[in-house]
Give the backbone structure.
Amino acid sequence: MKKKIISHTLLSLTLLLLSGCTEQSKTEFKGLTYGFKEPSNFPFEVNSVSTTIDAEQVDYLHQFVFHYRNNETTQQINYILSKVLEEPKANHVSKDGKKEYKLNNGILAFYEEDSTSQSLWWETKDGFLARYIYYIDGNTRNLDLYRLEIEALVDLANQVQ
């Protein structure tokens, strides 16, 4: 719970700083106000949490990345929310080569994997492209024994709906 509060606080502080940095910009920046749910039950022990906000092209792209990591096993799940503002069609999930799963709220999610990562993608009701990407050791090693059950990623998605 303390980690979640810290993460939300960091997100709020960053948004506050971004709204104060608009004087040098040629376009007026109105600030970002989003409320995201974060998961609380993970398929591995999480002992490091951080948040990244992509603010380089704020008039075009809003992207938030929540990083959940176990420092000992190097397991990591990134919860990424992206919205391309000028091209709403860019926010859609490519279904090619992905297995389809239905979330508890009826939204379809799409799963794919390779030897070093597993991911689950879906579109949120707020127009964001959401995804979980799971890997170990900075996505440099095969998952092998650390491979997650697909249901673990679906459970994480259901927690944030």
In short: Confidence is low (pLDDT under 50) at residues 5-10, 12-27.
